[in-house]
Amino acid sequence: MGQDVHERGIEREYGRQGRAHLVWSGFMVLVGGNAVYQMNRDPDILGHRGRLVADALLLWLLGWALLAGWRGRTFVTADGIAVRGAVRTRRRRWHDIYDIRDEPRRNQRSGDSQWLTYLYGDDGRRLLLPHVDDGQLPQFGAEIDGLRETAALHRGMAWEPRPEVEERIRRQSGHRKAWERATSGALFVLLAMFLVLLWQVVTGRDTEPGLLLVGVPLAAFALFAALLHWRWESQVPPPGAGFREQPPFKP
């Protein structure tokens, strides 16, 4: 939840607090530990090299998730907004912030947060503001309005749509969707290669887990990304073709 903090120039801090943080950490350790156990329960399934690759990947994902949950914060300061992730901190000064928007969360269960908050810069890039959502903030709409008012106060003027920035936002959105779909495609390929590896083990054939679980999925990701980015660029309307504003938050 949001907290007022006046130390080190921080005016507002959003993060997972107390029991919620402990529950999240415990859940991730349970899931990660079970995944490592299942992967190593039968040493003949993946072979020595395959288990090393799988264990390293699982431990890296677990470590990243724990760090993100422990360190993840959104700070609102007199200079701008800072987002601290698992490793690095990204900062945006007030005069570089174009808009702060609440957007619906896709494919989410009704019991979880339905809205997320993104910061958009003048370059069209967006930045997720961790823990600024309706699941953790009871007065989510009021919090977003407060952030927008703070941005307008530091900017010295009320927000107004700028077509050239909206055009950059639209282009960035298209490329982001291309990366997301390329990642999804690579994960499907990874699952298919895992099934192929299991079939090779069951039938007694020679296995190459490094090629099947690393090489082929990476090659598929590169191919999907290139094709999807090319397809997006080929469908980009001419500059100035108009833009669509994001819908407002509806409690």
From TrEMBL:
It comes from the Bacteria. Keywords: Membrane, Transmembrane, Transmembrane helix. The chain crosses the membrane at residues 21-40, 52-70, 178-199, 211-230. Coiled coil: none annotated. The keyword Heme does not apply. Residues 72-140 form the Low molecular weight protein antigen 6 PH domain. The keyword Transferase does not apply. This is PH domain-containing protein. It comes from Streptomyces sp. R08. The lineage of its organism: Bacteria, Bacillati, Actinomycetota, Actinomycetes, Kitasatosporales.
